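INTERNAL AUDIT FORM
Audit reference: QA-55
Scope: verify that the stored structure record matches its stored sequence.
Auditor: D.O.
Record contents follow.
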Amino acid sequence: MPSSLTIWCNAKFDAAAQRELEAGAESHRLVVPETVGGNLSVGGASELLAQADVAFGQPDPGQVVSLKNLRWVHLTSAGYTRYDREDVRAAIASRGARLTNSSGVFDDPCAQHLLALMLAHARRLSEAFAAQAEGPEWIYDRLRGRCRILEGDAVLILGYGAIARRLVELLAPFNLRVIAVRQHVKGDEAIPVYPAGEVLRLLPEADHVVNVLPSSATADGLVDAEFLAAIKPGAAFYNVGRGTTVNQPALISALESGQVDAAYLDVTDPEPLPSDHPLWRAPNCFITPHIAGGHQDEDSHMVRHFLANLRRFERGEPLVDVVMA
């Protein structure tokens, strides 16, 4: 491996994180295209990327396929749907390259966000705060008897990646019954995990259904009318995966009928959600604006995650958060 690498980066960081990146990569050549952006958007083809050994950010998938000298791609997102293609996988494998993501940056904040929503639902916080904002009104008689503790509830997680694993750890003190479904069961999971095809059988037992699925051909539209009809009546639904995995009209109908007691959505389709979208007015639908992964010093954490992997790459050691090899 050459002592100096060309590192291309199209991620937009705050000034402190950018300085940290430049200092951490000072023994290499760092190139930045004119157009930079966030971790939810991908830029177009970049002439500078053709010079790079390493890409950090959201490179054009077509260039990832065509550029033979590109040996490592590190994404600034946990999701990698736009790269989850046969041609990208084949290109990465053919030249012994690696594609890694930033799951290690976003797993804890997303899991904490989900835990906060589950506790808010159990303790009826949304209703109490709404009564304060709209009244104020003292709704003791209406709420106290409906407050719950989480102990003994059943949780079904859709997907079992980094966010789900961290959520399982955070839920452990609450003595819940936690299971998950995933496309490929490995057998080494910390909780009972079942093939995704069994989800309709498992739904009637779950008090909380937690969706952490990325967008994919198998996940998009998964939460449809049939899925929601199979949910235990009165269960709560949470989504920090992708909005495309949910049939939103079907979810609204399930909320209106009471089949689903409440929905807590950090992701929607589209984003931003238009002000006249019916999800805003659906009963017991609580929306946060795609902030589950957000946290203080997020940019710096993302840079440090990359630089730690860069040190491994320099030494020829296994990288963390590998999604393609």
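Auditor finding: record pair retrieved intact. The longest strand covers residues 177-182.
Action required: none
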